[in-house]
Write a structure and sequence with these properties.
The chain is 34% helix and 9% strand. The chain is of the alpha/beta class. Helix 8 (317-332) links the parallel strand 10 and strand 11 (336-339).
Length: 525
């Protein structure tokens, strides 16, 4: 498959309506063609569907698109008379969404999991509302690493039990004997990146907690932006950790990423962190060919401190040579390269930052050893995922992370949690199992931490239901005093005991003071 060019000629001569060359065209050129009336939203959507049929469902079978929107052509038809404008800058543009972003239409939102195969959402995620308002055609849902690569250790990039394995579009036939790409597509936003690189859509939206936008973008030769948490609303995204999750654009050019970011970055009352955002009116305004001139670019590698070169020191010769070429290009463009090794105290990982999880993944070279994922991911996963399942998911019996673990356990004899000839009894969901037993946010000091990060929901402790007193009397009469009420009585009882002990100490001090005063009076006499 031909590598997509960064820019190309216009889609057609002025006044002519032709089949758009999606495999080459940046989104900005597609918008220009729509605005000039050289192509329609229906023609674009039809072309996308044809390429998906030819390259994703047949031919190299990239498997980047997990499901198509059954209403895509109908939506496009309604937009045929609408041209892109300042108010609707994406009118008629086909966009794919990663399948952990909620849509309130007929599309399921599954995170690639068999456990959520039938799950739908109560409404659109905030970023989906913004895309629809801007006129985008939601083409479908892109495949991904299942649950955004938090289910198990060393899960194959781009694999999900529901969607199967995403392939890298540049070497789609180079697979090992288990069906896993030798050159992986990166993850977890694998399908979103591959779809853009292969011209299956004009642009896509992925998500990231730690590398899930950057990694697949680099593996597929496309552009992405990893926004600061709070620039794009997290409401309606299947979560890992609220303090790290974000969505981001995936496009063919930097200008396309800026155009899409203009639409996605907005304040949202459902996500308190967005209220503190600061963004320019137009991300495309400062794009220029000499934009790198004078820019200071940090390179965390200092030749004078080789023992502390924790990033570049690990690169193989070909990787080191490639990075040297990239740095040379930046210097030629006028950038100032600042070399400084990362201080040891700034390294990711260390005492108290990770949580040991036994690696049971049969495909991993480190099977049987302890993996050490960041503790914040597992700490926040249980609480955040349970809230999503409660507040957003419909048409499913799965209500908690414990339900997902139980479902996967029950399906070991019939469901493919892993690709290839791996015995189903050996398949792994170790991180979910570890997260399931965590206390999680919403307890004690975590309440203050959650407030700083801008929780998407009130902590469960704050939502505790107040039981009317008459019901408590009824429960006592019937001998069914609930555990919660029993715990409350125990807490209040302990409080009364504490008050009694405090009163006793005060009484003793008062009596001692009175005796001392009486003795002093006798001495004066």
């Amino acid at each position: 498959m031909k590598k997509p060019a960064r820019r190309n000629a216009s889609l057609a001569a002025a006044g002519a309506q032709v089949e758009p060359q999606l495999e080459d065209a940046p989104m900005s050129d597609i918008i220009d063609a729509l605005a000039a009336g050289r192509v329609t939203a229906t023609a674009l959507t039809t072309a996308c569907l044809a390429r998906i049929a030819a390259f994703d469902r047949a031919g190299p079978m990239l498997n980047a698109v997990r499901a198509l929107n059954p209403d895509a052509l109908a939506i496009a038809g309604k937009l045929d008379g609408t041209r892109p404008s300042a108010k609707r800058p994406l009118a008629g543009v086909p966009i794919l969404l990663k399948d952990n972003i909620a849509t309130g239409d007929r599309q399921p939102t599954t995170a690639g999991s068999l456990a959520l195969e039938s799950a739908r959402a109560r409404g659109d995620a905030t970023l989906v509302k913004l895309l629809r308002k801007a006129g985008a055609v939601i083409l479908g849902k892109a495949n991904l690493t299942e649950f955004a690569n938090i289910l198990a250790t060393d899960m194959p990039s781009g694999y999900s039990s529901l969607g199967g394995q995403v392939k890298n579009p540049y070497v789609p036939t180079l697979l090992d004997d288990r069906g896993i790409p030798v050159v992986d597509p990166g993850g977890s936003s694998s399908g979103s990146a591959v779809a853009v690189a292969a011209g299956l859509c004009a642009a896509s939206v992925g998500t990231e907690t730690s590398g899930s936008l950057l990694h697949p973008a680099s593996r597929n030769g496309i552009v992405t932006v990893k926004p600061t948490v709070g620039l794009i609303s997290r409401a309606g995204i299947v979560p890992i950790a609220h303090s790290r999750d974000t969505a981001g654009p995936m496009t063919r050019t930097v200008r396309d990423a800026a155009i899409l970011l203009n639409v996605l970055a907005a304040e949202d009352p459902l996500d308190p962190v967005t209220e503190r955002q600061r963004r320019p009116a137009d991300y495309t305004a400062d794009l220029a060919r000499d934009a790198m001139k004078g820019a200071r670019i940090g390179v965390p590698s200092d030749p004078a401190d080789p023992l502390n070169d924790s990033y570049y020191g690990k690169l193989p010769p070909d990787g080191a040579r490639l990075m040297a070429e990239v740095i040379k290009v930046l210097e030629d463009l006028g950038a100032i390269i600042v070399r400084a090794a990362m201080p040891t105290a700034g390294w990711i990982g260390g005492p108290g930052t990770t949580m040991p999880v036994l690696n049971r993944n049969p495909l991993s070279r480190n099977k049987g050893n302890l993996a050490t994922p960041p503790i914040v991911f597992l700490y926040e996963l249980k609480h955040d995922l349970n809230l999503y399942l409660r507040d957003w998911a419909t048409n499913t019996d799965i209500k908690t992370i414990a339900d997902i673990v139980a479902f996967n356990d029950s399906c070991r004899e019939s469901a493919a949690l892993w690709p290839g000839p791996v015995p189903r009894r050996q398949r792994d969901q170790g991180r979910f199992e570890r997260a399931r037993i965590q206390i999680g946010p919403g307890h004690g000091p975590a309440l203050r931490q959650d407030a700083r990060h801008g929780r998407l929901h009130e902590p469960a402790k704050a939502r505790r239901r107040v039981v009317p007193r008459r019901h408590r009397r009824r429960d006592r009469r019937q001998g069914r005093l609930s555990q919660r009420h029993g715990a409350r009585r125990l807490r209040f009882g302990r409080r009364r005991q504490g008050h009694a002990r405090l009163s006793a100490r005060r009484r003793l001090r008062r009596e001692s003071l009175e005796r001392a005063q009486a003795a002093a009076s006798r001495l004066r006499l």
